[in-house]
Design brief:
mainly alpha
Length: 133
């Protein structure tokens, strides 16, 4: 997983939470998650982000809500949770039944939270995976 590509994926997902998606947004996210080692996605995802929220490209006072996520050193428990959630997203990228949960996971990874705030989402992911077996 290329962290810059994943950061751009998270940036687009966060952007599309507050703005209407284009007809290509979901498809691009699935493709990028399926090929998240390929740096070509960074520019493609940025272009899509600016179609979803055109004002962000030229905003004089950026709010940060649509920024690409920048991975940083975190406490071990949070780091482990984020890796679990991202692996779920990558492994289930083409599973339409997982799409809403994938979007939730990507949004949560994009925020710096204490481990306890991820517990409900981790439980949802584990339940989804158990049902899939």
């Amino acid at each position: 997983m290329n962290k810059e590509v994943m950061g751009a994926i998270i940036g687009l997902v966060k952007t599309s939470q507050n703005n209407p998606k284009t007809e290509n947004t979901d498809s691009l996210l699935v493709q990028a998650l399926s090929d998240c080692d390929n740096e070509k996605w960074i520019e493609i995802l940025h272009q899509e982000k600016y179609l979803v929220s055109p004002g962000c490209k030229t905003c004089a006072s950026p709010c940060g809500n649509t920024d690409d996520y920048v991975f940083k050193k975190e406490e071990e428990e949070v780091d482990s949770i984020k890796k679990f959630l991202l692996n779920f997203c990558i492994q289930n990228a083409k599973n339409a039944d997982a799409y809403t949960l994938i979007n939730q996971c990507l949004c949560f990874v994009g925020y710096d939270l204490e481990a306890k705030y991820y517990s409900q989402l981790v439980t949802q992911v584990k339940s989804f995976l158990a049902e899939k077996k």
